[in-house]
Design brief:
Layout: H1 39-49, H2 68-84, H3 89-103, H4 113-128, H5 135-141, H6 148-161, H7 171-181, H8 186-201, H9 210-226, H10 233-239, H11 243-259, H12 267-271
Protein name: Cyclin N-terminal domain-containing protein
Keywords: Cell cycle, Cell division, Cyclin
GO biological process, one term: mitotic cell cycle phase transition
Length: about 290
Amino acid sequence: MCPLQQEVEMEDVDDDDDDPLVDIDNCDKTNPLAVVEYIDDLYQFYKKAECTGCVPPNYMEQQHDINQRMRGILIDWLVEVHYKFELMEETLYLTINLIDRFLAVKQIARKKLQLVGVTAMLLACKYEEVSVPVIEDLVLISDKAYSRQEVLDMEKLMINTLQFNLSVPTPYVFMRRFLKAAQSNKKLELLSFFMIELCLVEYEMLRFPPSLLAAAAIFTAQCNLSGCKYWSKTSEWYTTYSEEQLMECSRMMVRFHQKAGTGKLTGVQRKYSTSKYGYAAKIEAPTFLLEA
């Protein structure tokens, strides 16, 4: 059981001098926007609620005209669309969540899959963005494969199928909190997001809950930058995951990192090979994590 679930006081934890448990909210106590009084309760709620945004990891078996490879191609393309439109990071994660939740319950013909993708991005933009792309831009980016009315019809179908539930904890929600626990710098942050965006394209990663994906991405990035396994007591406390619990997911991330830039799905690799994203994709994968 994790420390937070045991409901023990932070001061009661027996720390060693080399790895003390840090109160990451102490410096924000005078900042009302940090809601320090409620932040732990919020994340305990997110942890309990994250299953509502998850889908069966084998849902694609119920689809007759599309498969996981097509899903990967769609998401790889949406990563590029998201980058081109300069949208907020939250929007990408919600877009993919909406796609998976919709496809998990609705049969879709392959010729409509891209329409599902752009419509999911439209819905995510309406939820997250201040300025929403116009439908004509989404039609244009789809090479005019669909009409404005088709986008509107799909929007109605998706939002009703999902019962208007767009408020789900995505990996991004946990990334912000867990990066703070890791006392991250910009380099660690960019490398962590590179790791987790590689996972967004991979269908097999749907078996991991968003909070575990976020923690594993940060753990993998930390190991990469430090050159050894590293997971602090502070990170374990706030994520509620131990190093052992993260290893399976982390090793999969390393393998994705190794093959990034090869094959046809290179959208994430190209995005994180730019100066804006700190050339994070050009950092060598921490292959030592693959050792037993």
